[in-house]
Design goal:
Structural class: alpha/beta
Number of helices: 3
Strand content: 25-35%
Length: 171
Amino acid sequence: EDGNAQAQVDYSEVDPSWHMPAKYYSFVRPEGSASPMIEFFIFDSDYPHFRNEDVQEWLDASIAASRATWKILVMHHPIYTDGKHGDDEQGNNEYLFPIICNKIDLVLSGHDHNFSHLRKNDPGCPIEQLVVGTGGASIRTNVTDTEAEVVKRGDFHGFGWIEATTNKITF
């Protein structure tokens, strides 16, 4: 297995600034709200973790039960990317799309070391994707073809910022 995800989960007990309570989990903002503005759904996108039916069932049930105005899927590997690794490098899309299509407002990922805002305007499964791989490691300027429209792209270090109101999410 590449890396040690359990070590990252365990580190949550050591350092209160590190938040990774499980290999897949969700959290809302504002915290504790009965009607949250945003819910984030986080899972380990490394192959073969998402092929685990428990993870798929958890994600499907969690999205269905969410009372959040905005739903954001967070994973390391992007669904679409114009970066070095290309679209769906881990082969998760065929398992992911039946769960998230028309239910998720934004997909947030990293993996490729650049910034991209991508949009796939498929009526059956529209996707807004932010690839924010701009923190720390060397920026990669490789550009590959993608099935999605590239709304914005940048080769720089930085971070992502998301603001949400009842009617609008801005990133």
